[in-house]
Specification:
alpha/beta, 2 domains, two-stranded antiparallel sheet, 10 helices, 11 strands, about 40% helix, globular
């Protein structure tokens, strides 16, 4: 069967994915994945449950994904900057609380804007459709819009109402990137730049931005991602070598119906990374910072 694969960026129904923990465990078995990190947005709720499901059959790395603001760096909301924190302690719940308040404000404001458009969708209706009632987000509103006849599919609703160009789009308040990285390190985490392609920066600007993030405490970058070309991977590897960052691997899996991405495999097998040095280097970075 070959060496077991590594995937350190996976989402389940506990955040914005559409697969259950049992389904993800089965996919990992089918795809020969031996190391995984469930990097839900703003929650660690799936960690203990998933470890209980898989037992000792695979290694589960604690992870969480958070978004940041780049406004003070002169970049707009089209420049998406997400940070994954590995190995964070329970101190991170203080960070979650800050984002939770912002999330609730975002949902409330979105429903108010929809009402002005003649779409009277109550929070109760959204809650009934939510994948996780404890963490309601934009896609849950999209599901409700579909269920109550305002869109043919949740994806259509999301595209029509919640694209960043839509006047109904409400951006969640986010920590500035320097504050977020500092907070994650204070929580015992190893902050990694997720899917750097979404920053939409050319190579020169990307290099300058990595210098800035490194000064804030960034420890690594998601080099191996199914949406990165070989050329882009090589560029990110060069940056990691130059600035002493750990190159990581992640499919950013949200479900088999999304972008044809498979856990561990990527898109049509363009991921398939089994180099355990990636995990070992993350652990060594953790010991270096906190032991």
């Amino acid at each position: 069967m070959g060496p077991r694969l590594i995937d350190l960026h996976v989402h389940s129904k506990h955040s914005d994915g559409n697969s259950s923990l049992n389904q993800i465990a089965q996919m990992c078995k089918e795809n020969n994945v031996g190391v995984i990190s469930l990097t839900e947005h703003y929650t660690l709720a799936s960690l203990t449950k998933f470890r209980r499901i898989v037992g000792k059959s695979m290694e589960v790395i604690p992870g969480v994904e958070l978004s940041s603001s780049l406004l003070k760096h002169g970049l707009s909301k089209k420049h998406v900057c997400h940070i994954i924190s590995y190995f964070s302690t329970t101190k991170i719940y203080k960070v979650f609380d800050e984002y939770e308040l912002s999330r609730k404000k975002c949902v409330k404001k979105t429903l108010e804007l929809l009402k002005k458009e003649g779409i009277n969708l109550s929070y109760t209706k959204v809650l009934e459709c939510a994948r996780n009632p404890e963490s309601v987000g934009r896609f849950d509103i999209a599901i409700a819009l579909h269920r109550y006849g305002y869109a043919k599919t949740p994806s259509q609703a999301y595209t029509e109402f919640f694209d960043t160009s839509s006047h109904i789009y409400v951006d969640r308040e986010k920590m500035e990137i320097d504050k977020l990285i500092k907070a994650l390190i204070e929580c015992g985490g190893i902050p990694i730049l997720a899917h750097p392609k979404t920053l939409r920066l050319n190579e020169s600007d990307m290099r300058e931005f990595i210098i800035l993030l490194k000064s804030y405490g960034l420890q690594g970058m998601e080099v191996y991602n199914p949406h990165n070309s070989d050329e882009r991977r090589n560029f990110y590897l060069e940056l990691c070598n130059e600035f002493d960052l750990v190159p990581t691997v992640g499919s950013d899996f949200h479900g088999r119906s999304t972008d044809n991405v498979e856990i561990g495999l990527g898109m049509e097998g363009n991921l398939c990374i089994s180099d355990y040095d990636i995990v070992r280097n993350l652990k060594e970075r953790k010991h270096k910072l906190f032991d």
